[in-house]
Structure formats: C-alpha cells, structure tokens
C-alpha cells in the first residue's frame, strides 16, 4: 500500500521521463482587489478528476499523447514577495536546465516573472504571447515595482521591444496603452491577429502566459478583478489551437481565484484550458 | 378551502383532459461527480412562478394553448437503481397507454432509459433526438451497466443503429466517439444539421431528451459535471423552435442540479427550456 | 483629517461644479420576485474601487473628461410607495432645475417613474430610450398601478405615443406586446434598430433607462427576475457607444440585486455600464 | 391521478376536520434591512420533507396527534401595505370564526398585526406572548406607522397595558426600553420568567408570536437583521415546551429569510420550531 | 523530484510502520435528503493543512505521538450499493488482518456497516459506541435494507443486544425509540452517561462511529439532514477525551457534506474531531 | 449638497472634538490560510447601518455617550509588509500624539504590531490584553519575522515579560505554549481570570487587541483560520463588559474576513463587538 498520490488529471510520468513539468505557485501577495489565487493549483488538481483525458478539440488524449510530471505546489512563505519570486525562479530554472518545459499554475500574475526569467536565461531570443484582460504594464503600482499590475513591464525589461504579443486587453490606465504602442504588440478586446503572430514566431522559443481573466466573467467569474467584455470559451479554445506547432518552452495559467465562483465553473474552465495548453505544447 | 396545490407554471388540467403529462423523477444515484439533480423537479416547480406563461419566441401561451397535467414527483427509494428504473418505467407506461405524452423532469440522465423504454414499447419505430455535452455511450462505467454515462448506449440497445441523433457533444472517451461513427449520428460542439434531421423525421415518432449540460456553463452552471464550451441559450431556443411540427411522443429535461447555482440562473433556464419544449410538443 | 468620503469611482466634483449628478434610490418595495435592489447603489459605490477610470471603449477617462458629483443615497422609508416616489421626484427636480443631468442608480425599475417625471416637467418633448428584458407595460400588477411591471406604462401616460423606444424585450404578457404595437416602438430580443432611433433623436432631449436585466443572466445573474436569452456585455457596450452625441438630459441604471450574485460579476457589470453611460452623456 | 398536493410536513386534514389552520403570509414590504421573508413559507413547506413527524421532545407525532390543515400561501400584492394587511385579517378572521386556531408563517413581523387583530376581535381578553430580539415598540419608523419595527406597539393599541409579555429582547432604541417599563412586561436577553408568565395565563386566551431572530444567529442566520447574543435552540425548545397547556388561540412564526442561509440550517430550525409550536397548541 | 503526495495532516508513516490506517469511503448512494458526503475525505485532506498537529486538549502532537498511514480514498463505483460495501469490507479486513486500526472517513453512515463487520469478524465480543443525531435503527427505509437510516440496526444484527451504546439521539420514528429500549442503550439529546459506559468497556474491543450530525448545526451545518438541537463542539471534545484509554479497534467519522457549508466551518470541525479521535486511539 | 460621507455607525465627530479615532488597516499580506481581512473595515462600515446605536448591555448610546471620529481606511500598498507597517505606525502615532485613543479595524493580526508600537512609545508601562484563538507567539513563520503568527511575540519584544495577558487560546505549536509559561499570562480556551487581570491593571495604560477568531466559528465563521471550540458571543460581551473602567489607550478588532460568511453574521458580530468595545473605552 502506497501513500496517497495526487496529481493533475492523474499524470503518472516520473520526473526523469517527463517532457513537461507542471507545478503550482500558490502566491497572491500583491493582488490588489480580491485575493485567493493561492488556492488555484490545489483546487484544480482536486477538480481535474471530473475532466476527461481525451480532447475532442485536438483529438488527443493527454495521458497517451504526452509525458507529464506534476511536482505539486511550491511551499511559499507569506508576506515576502522577493523571497517567493526567488523560490519560483529556482524551481523553474532546474526544470529548464533538465531540458523540460515548465508549465506553472498560479497564483497571481506576478509569479510569471521569475518563470519567464528562468526560461529567458536559457533562451535569450524568447518571445512572449500574453493573454489577459489587463495591460499589466505599469512602471509601479502604489510605489511597488513587483506587482501583478507590473509583471509584463518587468518581463519587457528582460526581453525588450517587439518581443511581447498581447491579446484580449480591455483594461488599464491610459498611459499604459500609450506605452504599449512603442514597446509591445497589443490587441484590444480579442485575439485578432493571433494567427499572424504565431506564423511569425514559428521555430522561435515562446513563453505563453494565460491570465484567465482574458475570458469573460460570464464563463470565468472566479478571479480577483472582474472585467466584463472578455472572450468566450470557444474563442479561448480556438486561440490555444492556433498555438499548435509553436516551440513553446515555458507556459503558465494564472489568476484563478476559485472561492469566488462557488459553482465550480471557473475551476473547470481553468482545468480545460490547462489540458488544451499542455496538448498544444505536446503537439508535434 | 382546498389543500395547497403546487404545479409547474400553475398547470391546471386534470389528468383525463390532458394531452401532456409532466412528472418528476428525482434520482441521482449513479451521478459520478456532483450529485443533486434529485432537487431539480421540486425546485423548478417552485421557481416557475417567476416565469411568464406567454412565449414571445413561439407566440403561444402555455396555459391557453396546451392541456398539461403535472403529476408531481415519483416517490423513489435511494440506493437501488434497478427498482428506481422500474418505478419510472411503470409510470411512463401508464401515461403512454393513456395516449398522452410523458414529459419527465430529471434527475440524472439515467432516468431517461426507462422512459424511452416505455415509449419504445408503444412506438417500435422510435427515433431519439439527444442534446448533450457528453456522448453517454459507454458500455459500462466502473463496471456498472446502468449509469448516466451509459444511458444512450442502453437506449441504442433498444432502438438500434441510425435511430439516435446526437447534438452538442463535446466530452467523452476516444472510444465512444469511435463507436458513435458506426451506430449513431453524432454532431460535435453544436446543433449543426438539426434542421435536416428534423426534416427527415417528420411524421415519425420521436423522443427528445435534453441533457441541459449541452448549454455552456456560463448560462447553466448548476449541473453535475461542468463542461465549458457549450451552446448559448439562444442556440437552445432556436433548436427547440426547430422541433416544432415533429411528432414528439415522449421527452425529458435532465441534469439540473440547482444547489450548485445559487444565483438561480440554471433553474430559470431549465424552466424556460421546459416551457418552450412543451409548447413545441403542443404546437400544431 | 476629514471624515470618510465615499463616492462612485472616487468622483470629486463639488455639486456646484458638476455637470452630472449621480444619486442612489435604494427602493425595492414593489419587486414581485426576489427583492434586494435596495443594496445596489451602496454596493456599486463600494466595488467601483476595482474599476479603472479610463475606458478603452471610448478612449476617455471619467475623472479627467467629466465633472460628476455623487450625492449618495436618498434616505427612503419602507412600505409606502407613494412617499418614496415623491422623495425621488423632489431630488431629481432640484438637479434638473440646477441645469445638471440626474443619473440615478436604482433600486427597482419603478424608481424611474418619478425621475422621468422630473425631467419631463422641464423637457415636455422628452423621448425615452428603454433597455429591458420586460415590457413593463401592464396597466396594473395585482391591482397596483405603481409597480416595476407598470413603470413604462406610467411613463407613457406622461410622454404619449411614439416617444418610447424599447429594446431587448423578451418577456411579458401577450396583451402587453399587443398594446406596444400601437403606442411604443418595441424591439424584441436585441437592440436592432437602435442606430436609426438614435439618428432620429439627435438634438431632442432623451431620457435613457437601462434595466440591467436586458443583459443575459450568464453575465448578469444578480437581478430580481432572471430571464435567459438576453444580450451580451459586448452588445451592451456597443449600444451605449451608439448613444454618444445624443442630448441625454436624464438617465438611470436599475435592477441590480447584488446579493444574488456572490461572484460579484453583476456588480462589476453594473459599474462598467454606469461608467460608459456617464461617458456617453459627457461626450461632446 | 391527482394534481400535486404540497403541504407542510404532509399535513392531510381537510379544512372542515382541522383544529389548526396553517397558512403563509409572504410579505416583506416594510423590512428595513435585508428583505426576503416572503420566501419563508414556501421554502419551509418544501424543506419540511426532511423533518420527522415524531417529536422526541414532546413524545408526540404531529400527524397522529393533531388535525392540521395547510391552506398554502395568501396571494398578496406588492407595495401596498394596507391592502396586504386587510387580506391577512380577512383570512385569519374566517379561520377564527370557524373555531379553528390560525397559525401563520411570515413574512416579516408586521403580518402579525392583522392576525392578532382577528383573534383579538373574538377574544377581547387576549394576552400576547412575544419572543423576539427586538422590542418592535416604536411609535413609527421613518414616519411609517405600519412597520415591522412598530408591530407590537400597534398590537398594544389593541390589547392595552399588561397584556404583552416580551422575551429575549436585546435590541432597540433607548426610548423603546423606557416605554416598555410602563406598558409591557419585557425580559431582556433570555426567557427568564416565562414559566411564571405561563402559570399566570392558564385558561386565558393567548396569542404566541415567535420572531425567530430571538435565536442566536449562530443557529439562525437566515433573517433580515442579524442580532448576535440570542438564545440557543435548546432554550427555544424549552420555552415552547413551557407553553404546553396554555389556551393558545392564535400563533405565528415570522422573520425567516431563507436565502441568507445557504446551508439550510435556518429553514430547518424554523420547521422544527413550527412543529413543536403546533404540538404545544395541540397538547391536551 | 517525487510525485505529489497528499495525506491528511501530512501523515508520513509507511503502511508497514503504521498503527493506524486512515482511508476514505466516498459513498453517498443511499442518502435520502442532501447528497454530497462523497466529497468529505478529499476535502478534509485538503483543508487539514490549516490545522495544527498539536492538540492543547490532549497535550499531544499527532505527528510525534502516533504512527498513522493515509491510504487515500477507495475508488468506489456509483449506483451499486452492495458492490460498494464489499469493497469497503475487503479493505478494512486487510487492515484489521495486519493488526492495525482502521479509521474510515465517510461518506454517509452506511459505510460504517462493512467496516464494523470487518472488525467484528476479528473481535466477536465487539462493542459499538455510536454518536449521532439519528437512531439509524429502521428495519428498512422505503423498502431498502441497506441504508444510512438502517445502519445501526444492521450492526445490531451482527453484535446483538447490549453491545450498542448510542448518544446524542434526537430524531427518529417513534417505533425506533421503542425498539431501542429493548436492544441498545440509547441516550437522548446529549452524552450523559458516556463516562459510565466507557468505564464498563475498559479492556474490551470497541468500535467508535461518529456521525458528525450529533453536533448542533450551528457548528456543523455541512451535512445531509440538518437537526437543530445537537451538542456543542466543546461537548464533542469532552466526549472524545473520555474515550482515552479504551481499546479502540476500529472507528469512523461520517456524514460531512462539505459543499453545504461554504464557510468551511464544518470541514474544519470534522478535521479537528478526526485529529482528536486519532489521538484518543493512540493514547496509552 | 455635500459629497457622500460614510462612517461607522454614522459617527459624526470632527477629528478635533473626538476622544476616540477609528480607522481601518485593510492588510492581509501575511495571512497563511484564507486571505480577505482587507475587506473588513469597509464591510463593517457598510453593514453598521443595520446596528442600533443603543446598547442594552451597557445602557449607553454610542452617539450620545461618546465622541468618535472615523477616518476611513488607510491606503495601503500590496506585497510590501514593512512599508504597510510603517504607514500604520505613522497614523497611529499621530492619533496618540493628539491625545486621542486609536481604535483600529484590521486587517490581519499583524497590523496590531505598529499600533501597539505607537501606543507603547507614549506609554512605556503599557500592558496588553489579548483575546485570540491562537498564541501568535512564534519566533518566525516559514522564515518570516513579521507575520500574523508572530505578532504577539513581536509585541513582547517591546513590552517584555508579564505585560501580556492572553485569553481564549486554543491553537498553536507545543513550543509556543511552553514559551508562554515563562513570558506571558496565557489562559487556554476561555476568559477565566479576566476579572482578576482587569482588577490588577486598574489605572495602568492598557492596549486591548481582539482577534475575533477567539469566538467559536458557529457565531464567527468569517475568518482566515477556523478554530472550533471558541467562546460564545455572550462570553465575549461579558468579557468586554469586564473591561469597563480600565484606562484603555489603544485597541483593535482584527481578523474578520467577511467574504467567507455570506450570511453576514460574522460582520454583524464584528460590528457589535466594536460598538461595545468603544463604549467600554468611553465608559467613565
């Protein structure tokens, strides 16, 4: 008799045999409105038992067609943002070093920063595809440089102009939208132009960060800051389908705050988005 | 002064004068994820007082334009699936024998099986129109032949190849989708082709089973297994409108689990779907 | 140190400098199904701190581009409908007299009646644009003349035939739809024809009343009577965008019942609708 | 086959054979904080199916040991308090005239006034036992004479000094507590002295009104105005047990607002309080 | 890097070194009111991370002072009660055979039957201490012999008269209370007499079954059938403390239905009861 | 017309005339389990309108008998604990400097530290009365010195041995309870000995910190870490009553997390506790 094992969708690959490494970063310390994304990875793991392993979208089965290891959640402290980011960076760096693709479950969006950094240190020509309701391009937020509201600005400091491709953006300060015109490729409201972007990135290393609040709150209310006017679930599926064939070297799914949606819909959405994203990464 | 009468939408027809007989089968014993569909018929009856009797979709009024009897809920035992199915079969058979159309409120989807059987015994050339997120075509589920996940497979054992028309399917095992290719007509994701199917079934006896989880969880989160990516409410209305003129000899609306949607939206949706379905049956 | 000030979106204009006056009418005394709209204005004020002041839809910032005063909520009694309506009328009349635009947060839809009356007394050639799921055209409701279900009929008694433009209507009694054919312009289900209506109203004084239940309950479940089949949030944004350039002399946003949507989505939707509506009024 | 009958605890007595008549008055029009008591009687009827008919407290079975008729809910209008009170008075008067004991399920506490009045008109020497968290002794509330906050003051205008026995009171204005010293018997916080009061009332006609918010919100959160510091459920049971043997000629249970307690505890509490109260009335 | 391990309170003992074996039986197939106890063991495991391992009640630390293995949940089918009971019996029998104490997390109360049976087969002189709100002594429930409402009657068929000690009982049919007088020792409402019972059982093998609905719903609303009037949490702690020194050879904690208490209180209560029960078993 | 003012219980004193200054510190950055105390002060202010200003416990009216200013909430950043604590310290210091009593609404318990520090800097002979479920005496928590779990340890570093009086403690690590024996006065489970402590502190400056989770979760589930076994609301009232006559020079009420109790009970409890605490401070 063995101790109780608990992995997303029942993933069974040992670390050494895995191509993809899933792990959770349960941190929400800079969340400015409703905290609770810390509960996302454990809740997703729990609820994933209600999800089929077969995807009729991609006609793939995630247990048969991918080798994935689930390392559980990092044991992060509370109230010390810098230390948290260091721990995530360390973990992601090890995964990257071992030639595997890290796929992180947030947590708030700031956790993407150390993961992007770890991947960027290996792939200096990294591009980022960024799905989100918010620009996340502030220079600082209430005086803080490290914040969910500044994370893409911080990532830009690593990768530079022309490397960040933003989709679905519908909220931010005027100055952020202005700044984006010079430094990133920003698409308002939806994912128009994603196909062209993907085409131009074929062969290049890409990090995909999905802030789930890109989705309309009708289908994804379980998040910190609710922004009506987002994309539908079918548009999200279509966008992920478009990513097939890219060289995705790192990815994350962030900003599920499960307690704010007691129907469980948001968690089910996050699980299916993660399943499809993993299949898109595994797709050959 | 009379005892308190409590019927869906205030239906007033006595049994003998009714063309349609509504009844509830509050069973959820084989539900594999979140139980609670047992509460659906009583909750729908209660909340139906908030619903208008006039449909601007069909320009019909359900009190004026249809003669419907509401027999309340069957008093089903717990934990004995076979006995439950026998009781439903007996009730539905009596309704069919009396030349009325049984319209059942589930409960989980397995309750459709004895109702289909009762109707099939009178109409051996029966066709089934099946709206659902799931294939429900497993040979067995965890060793059990009688399960919400096998109900359409069991129905196929009655009616045979080419008689089952499935719409909206977006979840299942790979083997179920394969099996369907040979035995049913399965449309993935939406209701494309429904008009043609209806056209080809004109004049034939048809059983319509609506698993409400065909709807996207944005509009119908109150169900056992949440499957993002479903049809909108307007698509559902349009599909029901398409059914007008068919010879519908039996029908059901299943898988509302009202406790999982505390906003009441799912129950309101189920009530309106049932109202429109009843009008489509009554339509001449 | 000053006492705690609490205004929608942090509006800072003093009354004398404001062009627009926001105030709340927390009344739900004639609500026939689920009460609770009394909580809407205070909840919206509270939650508005999570909303950006910049609108990427209109490329305007509501603090920079509009001068708005928030007067808080009227202190209305309970159980005496006539007295409540008098108090609202008195407040709105003062605002209109001071050459400002009253923008009221309900409360149930009946609160629109005294506000419309106050505006009509100044602008006898007033037109009304009415967004709603319901006709609200009953002559009386269970014997009561003053009701959320009769409010547009009462408004018609003021402004007369051809002055009321209804959009999104999908529920009512058969007789209401019949009556509308002779007296109002009623569009079922959506906002088709809104552009033409707006074009024809250019230059005329217009009152805009938005019953938020025009929205589909997938995005707006927090209301008294849930009516599936409504418009999407993007359609709502588009409709408000269409209003730009009209001479809006009064407006309201009603029927948010925040307690029935614990995810907070409905309140966030109401806040964003109000922000855009205010910007459309301020637009030059 | 008969139409669906729906009564509290499955009560089966026809009106003519009943000693006690249960009915619901779903009105909450003067509720000043959180409305929703209108849902109490229908919800209690629905949930009563989870309650045993046998009471181990009184060793009685309510189906065997009492003859009770459930007349359902009155069909009350909205927004017209006086008309609502008239309808309740008319119904209660008929029950009293037919020599039966009316037992009303509220609704808010104001509904007790017309029921007390109907009973008082037959029994001019009526005493009132009043369980509540609040004094309900205001002369008016925001200018309104008819209010849940004035109901016992209105009842005092009928029965006069020394006839009202208040227990559990823990909230009110200072002036109300002062007024009570001269006109009622008021016990703060608990039911101390109830036994003596009951002893002194033996043989006299008594109306018992139970505002369920006398209970601590730990066991009864589902009410309009939450007042921590109430009695426990066991104290409530003990108090009702003390009433055995009184000549109770009318009674009510008011102020359950079921939507505010999604665990269902408050509704279960209300059902058990009503069962025990009915048994205490039937007790010989 | 190892796969994600997930155990109650972080229990780390391997099976071979453990004295106590915790496992979950997520079955609720015969629940007659509100299902959902199937979610209890996984939810308790998840939430146990918020619980200290040190008990100030017993001054013991469960990681230091006990060797406990958590085997996870049994993978039970749905809708086939007999097969479920066989699987539980098989698992419990193996644990008993290996000279360890099985401690099961339900599920509904019926799961106690096969566990008691497994323990009884090894210890024919077994006594049962039964904490519950309900008698659970029906001969059958709606015709079914195997039901949560009959489980103690079934256990009595194994162990016989004078072996079952019931505490806290406050609900049942009259006939059950009558039957108990001849066959079990039944204490109504509280745990009076528990100390004497424990004293008389010193040295004998004892199975302890805790139906958590013995607790008042003020502290434990998250269960299928809510019965106001139960014991307080402090009384529960005191009762478990009394069990110290008994030869407990099997135990269970059943009837948590976590979805019905969204505050999480019921789950926290269940976790602490289980911690203290495990410490009482480990106590020397 | 003035901008909308929003204060707890409608407090009207200007800062200069106030004896007591209420303010909110909406910070929950080190919360280790369920965050959300950031919403407490605004929610309490909102819900306080349902609370009477008169206390039947102390026979005082808080508007008549006390001069209190409500300064609203501090505008704290996210993710930088040290900066947050500095801002609270600055505000509290100013209040203390102006010879007024600061009464802070948390936020998590760590916010007490800078408030205690500000008060201690003026009153070096300060004693602390600490109501809590938890010891809060850790040297560090996951490596962090500044944490809700270390706050009383940090306070001890200021005031030293024999100055901290802890009541109601029922959770912590073994080492914390050991440490307390040498450095604080710790009472487990309840408030036994409070009267003696108060007697011994007469005339000395005292800071009172109430972590509301000292209350049993039956009455206060809306908090981060649920600890069954706490005191009742009546015990809390009695404890506060005992504080009358002390020289309270600073106080706080912390750890309400309102979103986790949708019934509103926890917020109502927090409001009443705060009202009574303010009256006890104002009592002469």
Shape of chain A: globular
- Note poorly predicted spans of chain A: none
**Overall pLDDT level of chain A:** 97
Strand runs of chain A, count: 10
CATH topology of chain A: Arginase, Chain A
User: Major beta sheet of chain A, specifics?
Assistant: 8 strands, parallel
Q: Which class do the helix and strand fractions of chain A yield?
A: alpha/beta
How far is the N terminus from the C terminus of chain A? 38 Å
Total domain units of chain A: 1
The CATH architecture name of chain A reads 3-Layer(aba) Sandwich
CATH class of chain A: Alpha Beta
CATH superfamily of chain A: Ureohydrolase domain
In what range is the share of β-strand residues of chain A?
Answer: 15-25%
- Strand sequence of the main sheet of chain A, in spatial order? 4-1-5-10-9-6-7-8
Total of helices of chain A: 8
Oligomer: homohexamer
Q: Which two chains have the most extensive interface, and how many residues on each? A: A-F, 25 and 25 residues
The ordered H/E elements of chain A are EHEEEHEHEHEHEHEHEH
Provide the helix percentage of chain A: 25-40%
Cα-atom Rg of chain A, whole angstroms? 17 Å
Outline:
The first copy, chain A, has 284 residues and is an alpha/beta fold. Helices cover 32% and strands 18% of the residues of chain A.
Task: Give a verbal description of the structure.
In chain A, the strands form two sheets. In chain A, strands 4-1-5-10-9-6-7-8 form an eight-stranded parallel β-sheet, with helices on both faces. A two-stranded antiparallel sheet of chain A has the order 2-3. By secondary structure, chain A is of the alpha/beta class. Chain A has helices at residues 40-47, 81-97, 112-122, 151-159, 174-183, 194-201, 233-243, 265-282, and strands at residues 20-25, 54-55, 60-61, 68-73, 101-106, 127-131, 164-169, 185-188, 205-211, 247-254. Chain A starts with 19 loop residues before the first strand and ends with a helix. Chain A contains eight helices and ten strands. The model of chain A has no long low-confidence stretch (mean pLDDT 97). In chain A, helix 2 runs parallel beside helix 3, helix 3 (112-122) packs parallel to helix 4 (151-159) and helix 7 (233-243) packs parallel to helix 8 (265-282). The radius of gyration of chain A is 17 Å and the shape is globular. Chain A has one domain: Ureohydrolase domain (Arginase, Chain A), CATH 3.40.800. Chains A, B, C, D, E, F: Mn(2+) binds at residues 109, 132, 134, 136, 211, 213. Chains A, B, C, D, E, F: InterPro entries: Agmatinase-rel, Ureohydrolase, Ureohydrolase_dom_sf, Ureohydrolase_Mn_BS. Chains A, B, C, D, E, F: This is Agmatinase SpeB. Chains A, B, C, D, E, F: Its cofactor is Mn(2+). Chains A, B, C, D, E, F: Keywords: Hydrolase, Manganese, Metal-binding.
């Amino acid at each position: 008799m063995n101790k109780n094992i608990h992995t997303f969708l029942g993933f069974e690959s040992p670390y050494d045999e895995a191509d993809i490494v899933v792990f959770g970063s349960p941190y929400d310390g800079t969340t400015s409105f409703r905290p609770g994304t810390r509960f996302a990875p454990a809740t997703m793991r729990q609820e994933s038992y209600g999800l089929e392993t077969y995807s009729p979208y991609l006609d793939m089965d995630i247990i048969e067609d991918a080798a994935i290891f689930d390392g559980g959640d990092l044991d992060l402290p509370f109230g010390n943002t810098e230390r948290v980011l260091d721990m995530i960076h360390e973990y992601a760096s090890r995964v990257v070093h071992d030639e595997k693709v890290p796929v992180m479950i947030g947590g708030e969006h700031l956790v993407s920063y150390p993961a992007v950094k770890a991947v960027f240190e290996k792939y200096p020509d990294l591009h980022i595809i960024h799905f989100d309701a918010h620009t996340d391009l502030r220079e600082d937020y209430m005086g803080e440089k490290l914040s969910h509201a500044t994370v893409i600005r911080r990532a830009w400091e690593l990768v530079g102009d022309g490397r960040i491709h933003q989709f679905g953006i519908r909220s931010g300060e005027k100055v952020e939208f202005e700044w984006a015109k010079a430094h990133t490729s920003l698409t308002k409201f939806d994912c128009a132009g994603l196909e062209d972007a993907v085409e131009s990135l074929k062969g290049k290393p890409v990090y995909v960060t999905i802030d789930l609040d890109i989705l309309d709150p009708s289908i994804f209310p379980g998040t910190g800051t609710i922004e009506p006017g987002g994309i539908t679930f079918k548009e999200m599926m279509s966008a992920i389908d478009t990513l097939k064939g890219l060289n995705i070297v790192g990815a994350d799914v962030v900003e599920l705050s499960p307690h704010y949606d007691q129907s469980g819909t948001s968690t089910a959405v996050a699980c299916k988005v993660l399943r499809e994203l993993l299949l898109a990464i595994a797709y050959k």
